[in-house]
Every structure is written in C-alpha cells, then in structure tokens.
C-alpha cells in the first residue's frame, strides 16, 4: 500500500492507495483547506501517488510568500504560488523588500513552473436587504474589501475603483478582517457590501446565505472592454476570467447579475512551482499526470471548474511579459508530447 501524508491543521493525515511505492518523496506547501491552491495540490498528490510518480508530504495553510522562497532556496520541492509573487521577488519588492533586488532576482532564477491555474474571480456582492444595489451604489457605503494587507486587498480596491470610480477612504469606507473572520463579518451586517475574491460556488457566500439572499455582480461589459480594465488584466500575475453563467449549477438564494449572462472579472493566476534542478523526468511525469487527469482536477470540487487548469495560452496562463518564471523543461516536454503548444516566451532558455 502507498502512503500519502497530508500535514493539515497541525496533524498528519495518512491516505492509502494501491500500487508499489514511488521512488520520490516530495515536500509540498499550499494554502488552507477549501481553497483552489489546496485542492490543486492535494489532487496532484493523490494522482502522483496512485500512478507511482511520487509520494507527497503536504503542509497546508502556509503563507505562500514564504513557500515560494522555500522552493527558490531548495528547502521545499513544490509549492503553489500566485505569479505576482514571482514578479515581486524578482524586483526585491513588497514582501521580498528585505532580500533586495539583486538577491531576489537571483532566487527567482531558481524557480520553474509545472503548470498554472487561477484562483477564481473578483466580484461585488451584497445581501438583497442591504443598501448596495450594484457597482454604482458603493459611494458613501461601508465595503468589506479583504484582509488587512496583501494582493487580495490591493486587487479588490483597484477593481472597485476601475468599475465604480470609487476610492477606498475617499468615496467609501473600506474595512478589512482576517480570512478566518470573513464569513462572520459578511453575515453580521458590519458592511453594506463586499468586494472580494470569489469562486463558483464560493465558500464564504455559501455560508453567508443562511442570513439572507445575496446578489453578486459581474464586471459590466463596457467596463470590461475598456482600456483601463484590459490594461489591468495584463498586469503581472493577473488574467481575465470569462465564462457563461449558464454553465454553473443554480445556487438557491444567490443571484449573479450580468447584462448578457457572461461572467467577467480579473483573476489571480497561480502555478505549481519547483526548483530548476528538479529531475527532468520527475517534472515531466508530474505535469503529464495533470494533463492525463485534468478532468479529475476540474471535478474535484465545483469551484475548480473555472480555474483554467493547465492552460498554456498566455492570456490564461499569466506567463510571459513581466512575469519572470518559465516552465520547467520537463513540463514543456510533457505538454508537447500531449500535443499542447507551449509559447516560446514561456520556455526556459
């Protein structure tokens, strides 16, 4: 029997599957349970174990800022990472300011991508009983727009400004709470509306429906097609998420508003990243396992269906341009053997 260890909430959970023991034992880091990065990593771990590619020891609920640095320094084998973090590390900026630009650029040179996916969209939502009735009604209101700091807060503020013309602290009062407090704050009436990352379905919205019906607004089509938003979704680590709302299952109590039935919003793009020195065949087999089992990733939970798992198109993968990381050579080989084109700008030199 094969053993797959998941380190979660301070405990070790062992999963057993058939087949002979794989040759490699990989350390992995990811986000908290119930999120896209957690589901993406643990699904890869299950498949890799079942197919005798590798055994994983997964540490969840990690700060991915630190996880990326651990991979770059060779302390962790594989981690999820928002691509914006790779850009910031390369500049020695933001959470990597203490590294400095030279050390940051050197470290990010050690990082390679197996494949990418997105974390979901960003949307404005409110209880139907609240005073927020859409993008044009946020001025003068109190808006819950993220945790106290980080990319989610920056994106929420920026998107709300682009769509509504309203600035935090000037046109509306933004409030922030830690992720663990988010569902409680949504439902207790502390805010008139919420501008947050969302998945489809979204765990926070689902929990909050117990307190009343909710409406979620997509980015209006004219704003989406405008110069400002198109520039925004081309910024490092960001892409566009567009899909037909008819493809989503109906969720009682939730109304999603779009003038033409199409969801549009920016999305944060992430990747499973490894050290450049990972064995070619191992990187190839891990990527090939994802390609063979894409349906398993997308069907693992409902919110995985809109993640563009493993897409190599630059407008979906988020690679190239200002993002400094490229695919691992083994990953490129896996995609190309599967008949999937990898853009030259995303291939390692």
Whole-number mean pLDDT: 91
Q: Largest sheet at a glance?
A: 9 strands, mixed
CATH class type of the largest domain: Alpha Beta
Can you tell me the overall shape? globular
Radius of gyration: 20 Å
Helix content: 25-40%
Helical element count?
A: 13
Q: What fraction of the residues are assigned to beta strands by DSSP? A: 25-35%
Question: Which topology of the largest domain does CATH recognise?
Answer: D-Maltodextrin-Binding Protein, domain 2
Query: How many domains make up the coordinates?
Result: 2
Oligomer: single chain
CATH superfamily of the largest domain: Periplasmic binding protein-like II
CATH architecture of the largest domain: 3-Layer(aba) Sandwich
Summarize the structure in words.
With 349 residues, this protein is of the alpha/beta class. It has 2 domains: 196 residues, Periplasmic binding protein-like II (D-Maltodextrin-Binding Protein, domain 2); 147 residues, 3-Layer(aba) Sandwich (D-Maltodextrin-Binding Protein, domain 2), CATH 3.40.190. The chain is 32% helix and 26% strand. The chain contains 13 helices and 15 strands. Strands 1, 2, 3, 4, 5, 6, 12, 14 and 15 form a 9-stranded mixed sheet that branches. The protein has a 6-stranded mixed sheet with strand order 9-8-10-7-11-13. Strand 3, helix 1 and strand 4 form a beta-alpha-beta unit. Helix 3 crosses helix 4 and helix 10 packs across helix 13. The longest helix is centred in the N-terminal third of the chain and has 15 residues. It is globular and about 55 Å long. The two termini are 40 Å apart. The N terminus is likely disordered.
């Amino acid at each position: 029997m094969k053993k797959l260890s998941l380190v979660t909430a301070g405990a070790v959970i062992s999963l057993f599957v058939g087949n002979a023991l794989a040759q490699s034992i990989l350390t992995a880091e990811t986000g908290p349970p119930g999120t896209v990065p957690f589901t993406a990593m643990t699904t890869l771990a299950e498949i890799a174990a079942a197919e005798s590619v590798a055994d994983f020891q997964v540490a969840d609920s990690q700060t991915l800022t630190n996880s990326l640095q651990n991979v770059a320094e060779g302390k962790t084998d594989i981690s999820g990472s928002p691509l914006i973090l790779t850009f910031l590390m390369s500049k020695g900026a933001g959470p990597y300011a203490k590294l400095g630009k030279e050390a940051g650029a050197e470290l990010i040179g050690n990082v390679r991508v197996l494949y990418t996916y997105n974390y979901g969209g960003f949307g404005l939502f409110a209880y139907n009983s609240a005073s927020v009735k859409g993008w044009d009604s946020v001025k003068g209101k109190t808006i819950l727009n993220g945790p106290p700091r980080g990319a989610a807060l920056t994106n929420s503020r920026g998107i709300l400004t682009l769509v509504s013309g309203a600035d935090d602290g000037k046109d509306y009062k933004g409030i922030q709470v830690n992720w663990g407090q988010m569902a409680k704050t949504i439902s207790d009436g502390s805010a008139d509306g919420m501008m947050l990352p969302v998945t489809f379905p979204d765990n926070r919205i689902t929990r909050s429906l117990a307190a009343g019906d909710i409406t979620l607004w997509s980015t209006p089509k004219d704003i989406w097609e405008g110069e400002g938003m198109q520039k925004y979704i081309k910024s490092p680590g960001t892409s566009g998420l567009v899909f037909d709302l008819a493809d989503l299952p109906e969720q009682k109590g939730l109304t999603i508003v779009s003038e033409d039935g199409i969801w549009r919003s920016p999305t944060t793009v992430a990747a499973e990243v490894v050290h450049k020195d990972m064995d070619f065949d191992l990187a190839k087999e891990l990527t090939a396992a994802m390609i063979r089992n894409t349906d398993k990733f997308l069907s693992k939970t409902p919110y995985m269906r809109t993640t563009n798992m493993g897409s190599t198109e630059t407008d979906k993968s988020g690679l190239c341009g200002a993002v400094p990381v490229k695919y691992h050579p083994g990953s490129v080989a896996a995609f190309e053997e599967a008949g999937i084109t990898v853009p030259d700008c995303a291939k390692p030199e």
